[in-house]
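Lab channel / #folding
Pinned by the channel admin:
"Please post every new chain as: sequence first, then the structure tokens as a reply. Keep commentary short and put observations after the output so the thread stays searchable."

First post following the new format, from NK:
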Amino acid sequence: MLAQCRISERRACALVGLSRDAWRHPPCVDEQTKVLMARIREVAHQRRRFGYRCIHDMLRSDFPGTNHKKVYRLYRKQNLSVRKRSKKRLRGERRPLLAATRLNEVWSMDCVSDALASGRRLKCLTVADDFSHECIDIAVAHAMPGGHVIQVLEQAARFRGYPRAVRTDNGPEFTSRAFIGWAQARGIEHILIQPGRPMQNGYIESFNGRFRDECLNENWFETLSQAREAIAIWRQDYNEVRPHGTIGRIPPAAFAARPRQSSGDAWQPTTEPQAAILLTPGPLSN
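Reply from TO:
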């Protein structure tokens, strides 16, 4: 205003609401603040997941009397921010749903969520064979990390052999390093469906619909052991009693028993990789 208009300093300061003393004596950063700014910048670069609150906690002993508001002001002044987590890169092949032609060709997997009467979370891992539509297993736990999924599949493979491929969505338990490493070590192809396309995993989605309607929605679980017992009874009835329309109106277990009598249906790796031996889990835990 002073440079472009014929106006006095007093009038210009009054128009912008600034005191003449502040205009003539701009604030200077003291040495203590400069050191604090440098330490904030140093900690922020070393610990990219720390916000200003955590940085203030770390610097509280070195700079007593400095509150979190000053740390926040200096943090924002330097354009610092918490680094966002990068989206996990999905691995594996994405392809449309194809019909299986033999046992253990493809196992489809998914997770179904429920809750106990107390409100505690309940997670069910459902595994089904695409060819026979037989429910291979339903693992029930409060959480289902990648390591637990590996244990369930290893236990099933002791009796059925390993599948040629597994089809999953992009859930964290299926895109974890543990699960991807296990599949590669066992020579099992990992088929990932496209995000937002659940019908590319239509076999297990159809099974999960029946599982929710006939078991989860019809029972009120108070404990984890009660849920496991009821779900195991339902799974046995589904496999051995209930007829399935797409396999000749017979139970899946009866349909699977026919080709299982012939040899060569169970897919087994030609060699046992050392990495697979290291990944072999112990007994299942709650």
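NK: Residues 263-286 have pLDDT under 50 and may be disordered.
TO: also worth noting, The radius of gyration is 31 Å.
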